[in-house]
Amino acid sequence: MDQFFDTFLNWEYIWQVFPDLLKTGLLNTLVLAVTSALIGTVLGMVLAVMGLSTKIWLRWPARVYTDIFRGLPAILTILVIGQGLGTLARDVVGTNPYPLGILALSLIAAAYIGEIFRSGIQSVDKGQLEASRALGMSYSKAMLLVIIPQGVRRVLPALVNQFIALIKDSSLVYFLGLLSEQRELFRIGQDLAANTGNLSPLVAAGFVYLVITVPLTHLVNYIDKKLRTGRKVRADEPGEGDELDLVASGKVSS
Known about the structure:
The protein is mostly helical. The chain has a single domain, classed as Orthogonal Bundle (MetI-like fold), CATH 1.10.3720. Helix content is 78%, strand content 0%. One of its GO terms (cellular component) is ATP-binding cassette (ABC) transporter complex.
């Protein structure tokens, strides 16, 4: 038992690594995850719209992109982009692998987020689009103002889950060989563990990951519960899309 605690819960090594974990590792992990999430969300929405297009020259490229980046292991994508493009983009990023790590994570996230958005948009009743068109909206305006907002609202839990996955996948950027000040949580814990032969620094890094991801997991559950129960409305207050539903059913003239 003493050997177990000395290997995994050596407080000397844990306190030694914690300042770097909080000052450098946590910041870099959040930068990688948040930046990749923002870029991936924009690209994902583009992929979702392309995937729902009636034009085959838009729909098929989105489908192929999604299949490739969802089918490949994340570490393979990161290494191919980080090392393969690193030689081609050396004039732009120099020898710094950090931007390429963000690019790789963003491309991976876009494939998953695109599918999340697509499923959310498709879950909106088709009558909403027909009613919007009956009110004089163009197809693009109806999608932008009516369909997409409702679709995004329905998939918020899945989007938060994807952000949690990005936080964890950010540890894979370690394989690109980050500079000392660019190390994320896993790399800092791994470095001290390798130098000391003790796994306590990795346990400390895992604890910081849990501090980030566990509250987000409970946030997902809270959002999901709120979306399932809905908000209370007055009897005379129209709900989301009610006016459009009435137009679609012919009870209200457009």
